């Protein structure tokens, strides 16, 4: 079950002590109060920094969430929080003991030099970060389970300052409610729903607020965004972009990323043309294998073919894939170069924060016919 949840999740990936100087005045919210000067690309969260506290808002943190908004008030001192905080959850900062329910959050905390604050994780065997896998093995980091198998007793024993959690459907409300009743604060994250690669990376700013490291996060993010934009600009004038096939079927259904999705945008920004670019959706769309095969037969390059480690692994899904042009011409690339023996994949950890590095790989794959695995950071060329 956990791997199915992970599969759905994938389809759908200094200044620390200077808080007072960072919070000089309230920031302008812009249109409808959903945008501050701190947030550029992200659509699923907002930050408002005041002199005595920070307010975080998370918008619709699961698909079809009907415009739900969750509010979190952060402050070093509870006495500084306004008397009337409405439905907001108060969390005292900086936090020192957290539980992360997604591998993607590790990269954010690691970059902020706060990975040591992780006391619990979900699915500990599927992490890439050596500090996490080592901690789980040595039991200094507890595995709290997932979904219906969530271990509430372990969570109570950890007694975290906050649990960072995601939901793929409204049932997450019941889990959040139960944890709150047990006195365990839960923060819902929606980074995986961001439609822009830089929007997903911008969640670094969200996590930084829990550690009073907003300025550090902004500096790091600005560097990532600048490099990403520079790389994208370098291929923006490509006149004949290669046609890109992406993914692999799951139980005879091909969940194709929508044309407005994070993954489709990455292909476009790398100077490629996604074969399903006209799917007017930012979510995964279930398709029959025949429909995909019809469009994919003359694709130039195939990326992210699921768990297939080689071309024979692809054929085990369907022998007809041998007739596809990328298969014939050896132009299949998997995002599995940085992976542990138990399946922890750094593409879904550090890659979420470093879309610039993923983009660099994709540009090489799309526009250099001689590229090999050794030239790439996250990708391997399947043989």
How would you explain this protein's 3D organization?
It is a single chain. The chain is of the alpha/beta class. It has two domains: 2-227, Nitrogenase molybdenum iron protein domain (Rossmann fold), CATH 3.40.50.1980; 236-381, Nitrogenase molybdenum iron protein domain (Rossmann fold). It has 15 helices and 16 strands. The chain has helices spanning 2-11, 19-22, 104-111, 130-138, 152-158, 172-181, 197-201, 203-208, 214-234, 262-269, 289-296, 311-315, 325-328, 350-353, 355-367; strands at 45-49, 54-59, 69-75, 89-92, 98-100, 118-121, 142-143, 162-165, 186-188, 243-246, 253-257, 273-274, 284-288, 301-303, 332-334, 380-381. A hairpin with a 4-residue loop joins strand 1 and strand 2 (54-59). The longest helix has 21 residues, at 214-234. Mean pLDDT is 87; it is low at 1-35.
Short description:
Helix content is 32%, strand content 16%. It is an alpha/beta fold and 383 residues long. The radius of gyration is 21 Å and the shape is globular.
Summary tags:
2 domains; disordered N terminus; 383 residues; 5-stranded parallel sheet; Rossmann fold; 5-stranded mixed sheet; alpha/beta; single chain
Write the layout of secondary structure elements.
Blueprint lengths: L1 H10 L7 H4 L22 E5 L4 E6 L9 E7 L13 E4 L5 E3 L3 H8 L6 E4 L8 H9 L3 E2 L8 H7 L3 E4 L6 H10 L4 E3 L8 H5 L1 H6 L5 H21 L8 E4 L6 E5 L4 H8 L3 E2 L9 E5 H8 L4 E3 L7 H5 L9 H4 L3 E3 L15 H4 L1 H13 L12 E2 L2
Parallel strand pairs: 3-4, 5-6, 5-8, 6-7, 8-9, 10-12, 10-14, 14-15
Antiparallel strand pairs: 1-2, 2-3, 11-13, 15-16
Helix pairs in contact: 9-15
């Amino acid at each position: 079950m956990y791997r199915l949840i992970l599969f759905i999740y994938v389809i759908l990936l200094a200044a620390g002590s200077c808080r007072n100087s960072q919070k000089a005045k309230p920031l302008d919210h812009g249109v409808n109060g959903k945008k501050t000067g701190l947030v550029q690309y992200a659509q699923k969260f907002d930050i408002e920094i005041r002199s005595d506290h920070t307010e975080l808002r998370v918008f619709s943190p699961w698909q079809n969430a009907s415009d739900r908004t969750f509010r979190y008030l952060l402050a070093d001192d509870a006495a500084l929080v306004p008397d009337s905080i409405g439905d907001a959850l108060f969390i005292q900062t900086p936090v020192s003991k957290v539980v992360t329910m997604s591998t993607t959050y590790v990269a954010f905390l690691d970059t902020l030099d706060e990975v040591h604050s992780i006391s619990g994780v979900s699915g500990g065997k599927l992490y890439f970060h050596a500090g996490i896998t080592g901690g789980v093995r040595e039991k200094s980091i507890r595995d709290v389970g997932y979904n219906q198998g969530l271990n509430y007793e372990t969570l109570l024993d950890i007694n975290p300052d906050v649990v960072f959690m995601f939901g793929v459907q409204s049932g997450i409300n019941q889990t959040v409610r139960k944890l709150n009743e047990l006195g365990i604060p839960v923060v819902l994250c929606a980074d995986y729903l961001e439609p822009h690669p830089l929007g997903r990376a911008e969640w670094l700013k969200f996590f930084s607020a829990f550690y009073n490291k907003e300025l550090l996060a902004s500096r790091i993010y600005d560097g990532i965004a600048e490099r990403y934009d520079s790389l994208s600009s370098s291929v923006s004038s490509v006149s004949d972009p290669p046609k890109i096939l992406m993914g692999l079927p799951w139980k005879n259904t091909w969940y194709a990323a929508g044309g407005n999705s994070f993954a489709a945008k990455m292909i476009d920004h790398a100077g490629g043309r996604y074969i399903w670019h006209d799917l007017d959706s930012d979510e995964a769309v279930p398709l029959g294998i025949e429909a995909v095969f019809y469009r994919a037969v003359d694709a130039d390059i195939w990326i992210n073919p699921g768990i297939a480690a080689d071309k024979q692994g692809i054929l085990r899904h369907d022998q007809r894939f041998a007739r596809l042009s990328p298969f014939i011409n050896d132009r299949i690339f998997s995002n599995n170069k940085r992976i542990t023996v138990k399946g922890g994949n750094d593409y879904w950890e550090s890659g979420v924060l470093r879309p610039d590095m993923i983009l660099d790989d994709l540009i090489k794959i799309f526009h250099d016919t001689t590229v090999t695995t050794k030239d790439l950071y996250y990708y391997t060329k399947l043989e």
